[in-house]
Structures are given as C-alpha cells and as structure tokens.
Specification:
Radius of gyration: 16 Å
Shape: globular
Strand content: 25-35%
CATH topology: Rossmann fold
CATH architecture: 3-Layer(aba) Sandwich
Bound molecules: guanosine-5',3'-tetraphosphate
C-alpha cells in the first residue's frame, strides 16, 4: 500500500535494527484518513473470504480493525489484555509470549462473542514473531470457528512471523512489508 509506505518513510523513526516507531499515525496518535484507506485495503483483500467477524488485540490493532469492519460490514472484537470488571467469566483465554518484550501475557475474549459459524479475520498493527496472531487464532479454534485470514498493517519480514503463520495454512496479507531496518533506513519488500 503506497500511501502507508510513504507515511512510514516520512514519519517512521527507526529506533534500532529491530524496532520501528510509528507513534504519529498508528501506535499513539492515529491518522483517521490513512486508517480509512487501511480499512479499505484489508476489505479489498478479504472481501471474498466470507468474513463474519474481525478479532484484534487492544490497543493498537483496534483502529485498523474498526475501519476494516466498517468496510466489510462486520463486528469487531478486541481481545482484552486485562480482565475487566464486566468481563470475568466465560472467557476464551490464551497466553502470548513477546520475544520483543521478553514477557508473557494473557489475552481474553468473551465466549458469547464467537460461535462455530464464524469466519474470523484477524487484524494486528505489527507482525514480528507472530505470537499475537497465533494466540488470536487459538482463541478462534477454541470457539470451533474458522480463521478467514490474517491482515497486518506493518510486517517486519526479517522476523519469522509470516512463515510461522503460513506454515499453519493461513492467508496473510500485509499492507507494508519491511525487509530491513539496518543503518537507520526502512527498506521495503516490493
Ligand atoms: P509478535 O506478536 O508478532 O510475536 O510481536 P512481539 O511480541 O514482538 O510484539 C509485542 C508488541 O510490540 C506488540 O504490541 C507489537 O505490535 C509491538 N511491536 C513489535 N515490533 C514493533 C515495532 O517494530 N514497532 C512498534 N511500534 N511496535 C512493535 P503491544 O505490546 O500489544 O502494544 P499495543 O498494541 O498496545 O500498542
């Protein structure tokens, strides 16, 4: 997606060989018109996939997921990282290990929001090692529903998330694929 790549080049800050900061449009401040285009791009890629629901993880996945949900006309669920006052029982819960943060966390979705007839599009802001996407996919499996595909805003293709997800047979669509962040520069794949 050319508009997204342009935004990454203009506003992204390469913090290290591994980490790209995009706080000005995705992870802290949000650019609504860019997000609308991101939603359209996901919808175009998954329009024929029979999607009935979208699942993402709070917090940065929510904006792109909502825009995709608006385009596809389906509800959006965000898996919660902390148990809320109103969300305590009847949860599907999965562990997510972050290699970046070196910590394990849990994500949960209410059982009443997913059913076996659902075809679920998983959306996330970043794909690094794929652990967050795999945890969402396991939640969908727990509900005996199906994964319709996985949509990623920014993929760090030099990490192994994409191959782990494709090994499991999932269709992965990334709107910007980064080959390298070496020497402070963002290098894209195609
Ligand atoms: P993985 O799920 O693909 O294995 O990724 P990983 O554990 O490495 O990522 C943990 C968190 O860090 C996720 O956000 C992920 O989106 C984010 N992240 C990973 N690599 C980058 C990067 O290069 N730049 C930025 N900006 N974020 C990155 P999170 O902790 O769930 O945060 P949030 O969704 O609440 O913002």
């Amino acid at each position: 997606m050319e508009l997204l790549k342009k935004k990454i080049v203009e506003e992204g800050v390469v913090l290290s060989d591994q980490v790209l900061k995009v706080d000005s449009f995705l992870n802290h401040q949000i650019d609504p018109s860019l997000m609308q285009e991101i939603g359209r791009a996901f919808a175009n890629r998954f329009r024929e996939s029979g999607v009935t629901k979208i699942v993402t993880i709070e917090s940065s996945g929510i904006a792109p997921a909502v825009m995709a949900g608006l385009e596809l006309g389906v509800p959006v669920i965000f898996a919660r990282k902390r148990k809320s006052l109103t969300l305590q029982d009847d949860l599907y819960t999965e562990k997510v290990y972050s290699f970046t943060k070196k910590e394990e966390s849990e994500v949960s979705v209410s059982r009443r929001l997913l059913s076996p007839i659902d075809r679920v599009l998983l959306i996330d802001d970043f794909l690094a090692n794929g652990e967050a996407a795999l945890a969402m996919a396991r939640i969908v499996e727990q509900a005996s529903a199906n994964v319709a595909g996985i949509g990623i805003v920014i993929e760090k293709a030099f990490q192994n998330g994409n191959s782990k997800l494709k090994e499991k047979g999932y269709q992965v669509e990334s709107l910007a694929r980064i080959a390298s962040l070496k020497s402070g520069f963002v290098e894209f794949i195609d």
